[in-house]
Amino acid sequence: MDASQDSLDTITATGTAAVEVTANSADVLVTVTGSAAFGADQALVKAREVTALVSDLHCTGIAPDSIEVLGISTQTSSGRLARSSSATYQLRVRTATVEQVPLVLDSAAGQKNAGIAGIAWRYPESAGRTEALQQAIAAARKAAAAIAQALGVELLQVHRFTEHTFDEEHTPMPRMAMAAAMAESAGPALDIDVLHRKTIRAQVELTYRIS
Fold first, then answer.
1. 20 to 30 A Cα–Cα from 118, which one of 1, 67, 85, 145?
2. Alpha-helix runs per DSSP H in the chain
3. Is this prediction's pTM over 0.85?
4. pLDDT: is 208 or 34 the higher one?
C-alpha cells in the first residue's frame, strides 16, 4: 500500500438493508415412467407417456419448448417369452408465471405415470438486489453524515466502498412431503403453497476522506 494512503484522514460508516421479493415463476420437476426408452432429444415426441403430458400441458398454455428432459433411467426385465424395458424420465417444466404452477401440478396428477419431484422457485433477483443495494448505500451515507457532524468534520469524496449481498429464502418447498402428497392423492388436487418469498440482504461499507 502507498504510504500516502496511510496518512489519509477517513471515517467509515456501514449501511444495511433488506428487500423481500416474491417468486414470479418456477421450475417444476416431474418424473414420468414410460413403457419404452428414448434419448433425451426424442423423448418429448416419441415416448407415449411423456408426449401425453406434453400435450396436456400445451392445452393449459405451457409450450413444449418450456419442457426439458434432465435425465433418463432405464429398467430391463426378462420373461420366458420376451425381454422388455421401461424408462423413467426426469423433466423440468419451466413456468412463465406462478399462476402456471398449479396447472403443471394438476396435469402431472392427472397422468397415472407421472409424479412431482420438486419445485425450484424463481425470483426477479436483479431488481431486488439493486433495491437492497441502493437502500444500504443511502443508510451508509446517512450514517457517515451523522458521524461527520458529531465530529465536526467535513466529508470529502468516497475513498473506499465494499458491499456484500446474500439471500434468505423463507419457505423452501419440502420435496419429500410434496412427493408423498402426490403419491397419496386420489385426485389432482395438491395442498401446496405457491406464494414463496425470500429476503435479499445487502451490507455496504463506505470510507470517506474528511477534512
1. 85
2. 3-6, 40-46, 48-59, 101-109, 125-151, 175-184
3. no
4. 208
